[in-house]
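Lab meeting notes turned into a lecture example. A postdoc, R.K., suggested we walk through two folding results consecutively so the class can see how the record format repeats. The first protein's sequence and structure tokens come next.
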Amino acid sequence: MTSFEVIEDLYSKGHQDSATSLLQQNIQFLKDKPNEIIDLSQSYNLLGDLYLKTNEFEEALSIWNQNRKLIEKAFGQESVYMAEIYSAYSKYYSFLIKLDSSYYYSNKAINLFRRTHSTDIPAYKIYRQYAFASKIYYEKEDKFESRKTARILLDSALYYNKNLNKDN
């Protein structure tokens, strides 16, 4: 199995096809290992992100739907891992400029995360997506308030990133 850092590094250097291929190999390798559900889920999430960044929206959604089924079966709908998936759905709808749906899923993600307070998922990503979706969603009502709210949420994302992700 190739590490996620290596795959992200490949992608950041412009080698999208290699990164995608390695992730697909990871997924095939991990599908047969029932004890590796978390790594499989992370592989699905990262592959969905790569597809989204290359404008393959439906592929990203398909991957995240597979991940949702995996997590629901293994941990249930109230699992903190579902927060990551809801956040991914929010990204998908942001790219499609469906602001209501983007906010809906980011709100579900943040509420689920706040109920569980788990360190098993990257909280700063959940907060960052929620800040982005909230800013855009509320901007039509009051630009100043939406930016103020987004700043507070991004500060929360930065806090979680610094305190929970000490290695990065």
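The second example is placed directly after the first for contrast:
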Amino acid sequence: KKIGGLLVQGRLRTPHAETASHLYFASSSSDSFFQCFSTHPPLAKRIVAIFPRFDGQFPHVKMLPVSTAEIQQRLEDSYAILAQSAATHEGMANAISSAITPEQARAISVGFRNAALVREAIPDDVLRTVHQPMGAMAFIYALLLDLDDSARAKQLKELQPNTAPGVYDQTLKLQAPVATLDERARLALIDLALPALRHLSLPQYEELMRNTEMLIESDRAIILFEYTMQKVLERHLKPKFEKSAPPRSDFRAMEPLANDCAVLLSALARMERQDDAAIENAFAAGVQQLDLRTPISLLSANECNLPQIDAALQRAAQGTLYIRRNLMYACAHTAADDGRMPGREVLLLRAIADALDCPVPPFVNAADAAQSSR
């Protein structure tokens, strides 16, 4: 009776409904052609067989509300369809058809699905917190708390007198859920927190940057995640709160930056790969993308550590937009050479992108999304 009371009476909105009809209690196909061969008698007739007094009237039954997962899936599918159809739109064909192929549209859809998976892994209370300025400050502090109990206690002791009581209390509440997040979720939440952080007052911004530096330097060492966070905050908040001269463009050719290119590509190639051949292949994939006539060689691990990466990025950031974009593209090819993007590669690539003020090329996100889906 409930199936009969539904608006579509259990029918599926898909051309493949008949192939799955044997799995369902009611007829899943709305095609009248298939009704001739239906193995399902009409619902009313089946009910009368076990309940002879049935009057043939089905009670009205409300559909279950659409789930969040269904909404996300519809959004992803719609985006992919729009991306493909836009390529053939009159007046836009020349500009878009060469830029978006059906394969790229599907990759975009996979990227949205992967983003939805990251979103589902984030606790709702953490997500709500990062949308408020004070909560976003507390979230940044919680991200930087050490996993070691004694080191974390030292950080909190230094943090408490240097921040507002409400922010400190929120930091304590966030430390447990934040500690369970992986790198992708952490980066996603930092991005979500940035709009709220832009609404800080100047004194609050200065407090945030002082405390961030204090938490990072508390153990007299800096790890890749901390370095990446610094670059993200500098790129997105510093221009809002600090007056600074326009970036210089001291380098208009790639040759003076050849050694810096070698440092960055070598670091990315060695980040997660252990096999020498795989490292060489990843490095070569990036070199092939460089507009560089000077040959460069793969550096040892000791020649491309974090301080050397930072020095290389400071010089590369003084290149023209073309130079920075070309280097970013080469770095992306190195990172995505093997079709997989572990967390540390994601972190370093994001740090490079923010230091160079260039977005990560979309094919990297697509490759990463495809690997995550698998």
